[in-house]
What does this fold into?
Amino acid sequence: MRRNIVAFLRWAPWRVRLSMVVMGIGQLCYGQIVKGLVYLACFGGFLAYFITTGVEDLIGFFTLGTTQENLWLGIPGDNSLTMLILGLFSIVLLILWVVLYVTNVKDAAFTARQIERGKPVPKFRQTLQTAVDGKFHITALSLPVVGVAIFSILPIVFMICIAFTDLGGDVVYPKLANWSLSSWKKILSLGKIGGTFMKILGWNILWAVTSTALNFVLGLGMALLLNKRNVKGSKFWRAFPILAYAIPGFISMLGFKFMFSQSGPINYYLDQAGLMRIFFLTNDASAKWWARGIGLFVNAWISTPSIMLMTTGILSNINTDLYEAASLDGASPWQQFRKITLPFVVFSTTPVLISQFVGNFNNFGVFFFLRSGVISNYADYFLASDTDLLINWLYKLSVDNNYYSIGAAISLVIFLITAVVSLSVYVRSAAYKQEDTYQ
Amino acid sequence: MKKMIVLMLVLTMVLASFSGCQEEAPSGQFDTSDLYKQVMARFDGELEQGAVVKVLENDTAVELGYVDALIEAFNEAYQDQGIRAERMNIDQYSDLATDGPYGYGPDVWYQANDILMKYADDQHLLPLPIYDMECYEQIPQSAWDAYATDMEGETFYCGIPLNVQSGMLYYIESMLPEDWETEWDIDSNGTPDFFETYTALYAYSEQCKLGGEKTQYGYLDETVDTYFMSGYLMTYGGYIFGSNGTDPSDIGLAAGDSYKGARMIQQWAGQMGNTEVLDNAFSSAAYQYLADGVMLCTISTPDVSRMFIRSMVATGNWTEAEAEADLKMITVPRLPVSADLTADDWQDTITKMDELTVEMTMMGGINGYGISSYTQCPNAALAFVEFATSYEQAVLRNQYLGVAPAREDAADTISKTDPTVGILFDRLDRGLISIMPAITEIGQLWTPAESFLIDLSTDPYRAERGEERLYETDEQIKAGLERLVSQIRDAIETLA
Amino acid sequence: MRKKKVTARKMADHVFTYSALLVMAAVFLFPCLWLILASLSKTGSLYDFKGFFPKEFSFQTFRDLFTDDVNGLYPYGTWFLNTLYVAVGSSVLGTVLVLLTAYVMSRFRFRGRDTIKKTTLVLGMFPGFMGMTAVYIIMTQFGLIDKLGSLIFFYAATAPVGYMVQKGYFDSLPNTIFEAARLDGASELEVFMKITLPLSKPMVVYTMLTQFAWPWSDVLLPKLLLKDRQMWTVAVGLFNLPETHFARFAAGSVFIAIPIVILYFSLVKNIVNGLTAGSVKG
It folds into this structure.
């Protein structure tokens, strides 16, 4: 490696060397005006950024602020949160600069080699052409990657960083945060948080398994039902689940919340029938399984239609010859279902099942909308209710109660669990393995 | 006493500035006033020319048109002075700590004292030069205390009290039983006895259950609401935070004989026999139910009187004017010394009122204005607050919204035509309103307390559902309260 | 005899099938019907109902929805237009980004491809709101608070994470078509624009539809990024309606549900094709 670099340096013509000092100059000297100007502009932009704020931001990432703001006396100070984000941002830009710098040198070297070989210097139009042709994949991916990096990856990295600070609780702006392992110590010391974590984790797993299975079975059942040969007007019947599919989820969930509330219609009819009202979603020990059951039902109501639609399509892909052959062999409809339909559907939907499982594991909406603001005090839940999933608990900890770093640390733990489980299942799934053999 | 010292301080300062000598303060008290001067430096009285004060107000006040009237009046009054106000149309529970540092959020914010003061600890709200303000003298110290906060041993005030909030008993006069004057006014004082003591109200509610009255229930209320129900605990020795609500390490919900009060909440839940009250949504159902004649009375704060009137008008049985005349708002009944709603004859609680009953302490709040620390125009904002807390506006706000002003002069004026508003002022004066603590930790009270109250109020149903009762004995209730206290403590301390 | 038995079994099957269909229809229709009924309540309060039915019916709430914004507190019409703007914007921009990502991931083999695949899989597992603070601060730095553009950027930029369904579709297109086009001298861009896209109509429709539908139901992020009520989306506005305005909530919900339902119904074939193809392979 080092030898390569030394050799490269020895070989490099002066214009390439110029590019190594100031991005784009070499290209300009080769007569690649537009490209050179673009590189030069990037170089200038980066330089300007780092001189004005970049270096400061970078240092801020490590200190997280040195002077505390006093708002009453009007003494300005630092904001740890912003410094963390801007610090991360400057690191990203730094990496980007390095990448751009390397491509710039490589590009100049490429041109130099072209000249050595007596070929013409590539024109800007040609560069553009490679961008949309030979290097199409890079051009096409650059925008999505930048977007995802800023709005998806950066926030997650930010969250991971937060888990290693003492931010939250008393330490919020204008107070300054510090890098610290305190939240990990609190989690590992178990006690209140640990106990609640285990209790919620148990329910969370039960929920994810049950709701995924339930949604899948119901969705498949509906698809099979609508697919039956004796069903007339299946398009008409299919309209009803699609109706549920189309209504924004939070509306359905709030609607169900009202429906099952103490003053809601269901309790009204129970009352009219002379029966006792039921604590469906009330914060009472007896409501625990009612609320969980309603959660499962509401979740199924919202998600089965899409599974139904999906399996409908898959069912139509099954080769009908298989069924005919099976009929001739005397297989009952149930056997046909078990031996042909189910394996095919399960095989085709493994990746979807995994993402459904992960989605249900992290299903924030259902209990956020059905049972907001409930904390079960009868069973020693710490800032959580007995229906909360880990993600709801996280929300209560970090958003409602400002315990940012603890919340971040716990979400990191949860994430590790889900990521390891689903990645390993996914990598082993037939769909993943066969990806390349398909084409 | 404090007031005197402060007054003298102000006087000295004023004199000092008159004589033009800017001496260094030598010692002791003058150091603190130095701090005061530093903190108040930005209120130099120079109105920021061209400034637009962004005002975040209460949704109900917006809905009923008061806010637009207020802002219009302000803009008219200040049109020559180069400042204007504008309603900020954002969520009334906006988070100043999230918005402020990034340059968003209001300049002036109207909220309850507990919500505003949550932001004072971290200096998101500015301390205000209240001694120089016109309303200072008119507002009782107990109301100011709701906005007090300490910095380096000196007390600052981060809000201007505007109105007093606490539970009031609402009822509709035409829904009273026909025979109340003969059957339910044995002391002939013109107030139905069942609005005078809870024992009598319990007896009347039992009678309603038998049928034959105009309403299905006598008294219905959200027995799970911390704000209204904590009064039961506080009347018998409970409190929220020690040292006048400033010490979060001392949580007093289980202190004294508070369990006795808790037992009565449970008695009510059993008496009402309606599970709708176990849901915190009941408070908004109450408007409709009172108008529909589901219950005769309920307890709520004065600022929602318009909501009751609106529901009454919506039924079609009242016109706006009729509803206003028919809806009554009076002081809450007295509680039995025995702490048992069925122990005494209700007649005795009326005839031997002083002996058998005590006045109920209720939790209350002081709604008022705060000024954001992030404001670019503190002087204009202050001018707006001065304007909005003036006597005229306090009276006008009452006319629009029915709220009880914290200003003595305004309360006096209104009391002349509407005695109910004076009640709250009087109760505040006599210490019967326990103001919500002005510290951040108060935020950890509500949810655990509500959970406990739900658990407690559900208990009467457990027996009929074949479950084991959890709060049958005093010991169990005491243990429940202790558990509540430790939960609040956990929430405050575990992760802090 | 035998024939009779068969018909009896057929009858039983019919009865079972249609009763199951009826149950299904009822379960899905009923809550929707209830919302529609509720939106027609005269007083507007949730507590003025007899069971599922309002005591008195009136179209007043629908009229109020657009004519009476209660002094600017509930400007439903503005919310509707805001959401439409965000939905269309993020649908167009997001679809372009998703399709590009999916297409490249499906057709090209390059260094880092496997990393991208696994990263996106993992990204979907992070609880979204944990990053919300960061998104908020990023938006403040870009000066995008209270601007509908912030939502469009966010929805469009994060859309490629869910490229799997689209990739599955592109996988199912026969490779020979592309190779033939390349042999004819078409550039990759031309292949994508002139061959892939026309062949992928159901996928494009499906992607646009899912992108379009999301802004109508997202509450948390818009609540954080949009402060002014005039800037809110329908979801934020409806979510913040107090219980005393239940009929308004119901009417507002029904009103936004109608166009989305019509869209779904008219495009159901594309949705089925899209979902199916996407699921078949990862």
Summary: Chain A has a mean pLDDT of 86. Chain A touches chain C through 102 residues (CB under 8 Å).
